[in-house]
TrEMBL record:
It comes from the Bacteria. InterPro entries: FAD/NAD-bd_sf, Flavin-dep_Halogenase_NPB, Flavin_halogenase, Trp_halogen. This is Tryptophan 7-halogenase. Gene3D superfamilies: FAD/NAD(P)-binding domain (3.50.50.60). SUPFAM superfamilies: FAD/NAD(P)-binding domain. It comes from Brevundimonas fontaquae.
Length: 509
């Protein structure tokens, strides 16, 4: 049975701008190329955006590719720097650190995953660390960078990377992109959302009395969640019993020295702080649990640790970790903070916006919004949120720290059942329970587990197929070759200066 062309969506209204709203506008305008009719975005300059999410994960580069955006131009325009992974300091114990790299670690040997080969060697006394074989980790350690695909036949070819970005500049870039492709912007504050008898949103009422009608609405109104939460009254899965932090203090500072090609996540007494270096400034923040620390105390602690003079006043961002029971309900799709929030430890906020749009295109409805499509969309997206939630909880629950009530609470929390199962499986020979199309794959789990002190007591039996007498020497050779190749690469700053330096040193607030 063919779709009824008279029921196609004629107009989409996006409520709210910022990164979520303009990303939706850009992707809709590029992917649908007028086939969906009109795309309109309602926002107000009087309502500020959060704009502190400044770190991404590698799939963000897929977004640029799908938009047909030149990555080099984008990096210059948003004053971005490159990100090879995250350094975690003081998480397992004070004074200890580990690295979560993007890309590969080593290469498979015979039928065995590299991790299993390294694990067997380590259990037999081999001293080399797992990250000595991760090209992204070695580049980050040495402050060097190149595009991995430009060195595909070398030991650094298995690395991957993401970007550190200025979130407000990203929103402006995407706005320019979207408006050039026909998206119209309406300046106004949404005062009311009118709902039809069948539960669908009919139209918006703006503060000045104007109305905005559409067939489908995308809620990018942030924590206010004007449509999915307030109008449609979709409930919220509260995950604060697993992720105890509920507030963040954010501030931007002048750069001190060249930007590092990685994010720093340093554990604190009652949470953790981030450092995200861009080309012309650095983003800083303290994510903390308000049960143990006040805003003033968190601000003072963070400001005592930042490097460089602040260029804006610190901003307080309260949040509740969790996700809506449904991210698509009737003719409303929620993106970004309107749909849910998982604290920024692994830089997944922008990824979830892109992911939400990617799945929406797969299940694109007509005006009737078949609930079968929405049900499958919600199943897949909420599974993504839960996967990311469990991976972030992993960083907390494995800590050996007991120096504050916060860390003691993290150690004794009852874990999500799926995470509990994954940890038990990994302890049993380093095995992993990976699903389809997950964001965090084997390298991520192996890196965090090893970094937090979870090393299996045995290895996979297939590793015994490999003659092992020469393996330690082969590992040493591979690590040394990687170090030599990395040593010949440009520094991160040199790479930026040669290829994608921002045109001016002006700092955005």
């Amino acid at each position: 049975m063919q779709a009824d062309p008279s029921r196609k969506i004629r107009k989409v209204c996006i409520v709210g701008g910022g990164t979520a709203g303009w990303m939706a506008a850009a992707l809709l305008s590029e992917h649908l190329k007028g086939a969906l009719g009109q795309i309109e975005l309602v926002e107000s300059d009087d309502i500020g955006t959060i704009g502190v999410g400044e770190s991404t994960v590698p799939p963000f580069l897929q977004l640029l590719a799908k938009l047909g955006v030149d990555e080099q131009v984008f990096v210059r325009e948003v004053q971005a720097s490159f990100k090879l992974g995250i350094e975690f300091r003081d998480w397992k114990a004070k004074g200890q650190s580990y690295f979560h790299p993007f890309g590969t670690i080593g290469a498979p040997v015979d039928l065995a995953d590299f991790y299993q080969v390294w694990l067997k060697a380590a259990l037999q006394g081999y001293p080399g660390g797992l990250q000595d074989f991760a090209p992204a980790a070695v580049m980050a350690r040495e402050g060097r960078f190149t595009l991995p695909f430009k060195a595909a036949r070398t030991p650094v070819g298995g690395a991957s990377y993401a970007l550190h970005v200025d979130a407000k500049r990203v929103a402006r870039f995407l706005r320019t992109f979207a408006e050039a492709r026909g998206v119209s912007r309406v300046e106004g504050i949404v005062e009311d959302v009118r709902v039809r008898d069948d539960g669908f949103v009919d139209h918006l009422v703006l503060k000045d009395g104007r109305t905005v009608e559409a067939d489908f609405f995308i809620d990018c109104s942030g924590f206010r969640s004007l449509l999915i939460g307030k109008a449609l009254k979709v409930g919220y899965h509260d995950w604060s019993h697993w992720l105890l932090c509920d507030r963040a203090i954010a501030v931007q500072t002048e750069n001190v020295g060249p930007p590092a090609p990685y994010t720093l996540a340093q554990a604190q007494d009652y949470g953790w702080r981030w450092r995200i270096p861009l080309q012309h400034r650095t983003g800083n923040g303290y994510v903390f649990c308000s049960q143990y620390l006040s805003d003033d105390e968190a601000t003072a602690s963070m400001m005592a640790q930042v490097e460089g003079a602040p260029v804006v006043k610190p901003m307080v961002v309260p949040f509740k970790t969790g996700v809506r029971e449904r991210l698509w309900d009737k003719n409303v799709l929620a993106l970004g903070l309107a749909g849910g929030f998982i604290e920024p430890l692994e830089s997944t906020a922008i990824h979830l916006i892109y992911r939400g749009l990617d799945f929406f295109f797969r299940f694109l409805p007509d005006r009737d919004c078949d609930p079968v499509l929405a049900d499958e969309y919600n199943r897949r997206m909420i599974a993504d949120y839960e996967e990311i939630r469990d991976f972030i909880v992993l960083h907390y629950c494995l800590t050996e720290r007991d120096d504050t009530p916060f860390w003691r609470a993290c150690r004794r929390m009852e874990l999500p059942p799926e995470l509990k199962r994954k940890i038990a499986l990994f302890r049993s020979g380093g095995r992993l329970a990976e699903g389809l199309d997950e964001l965090f794959r084997a390298v991520s789990w192996q890196s965090v587990m090893e970094g937090m002190g979870v090393r299996p007591h045995t290895f996979h039996p297939l590793t015994n197929r490999i003659p092992f007498d020469d393996v330690p020497g082969q590992l040493d050779h591979a690590a040394e070759l990687l170090r030599r190749v990395v040593a010949d690469l440009p520094t991160h700053q040199q790479f930026i200066d040669r290829h994608c330096a921002a045109p001016s040193p002006q700092v955005s607030a």
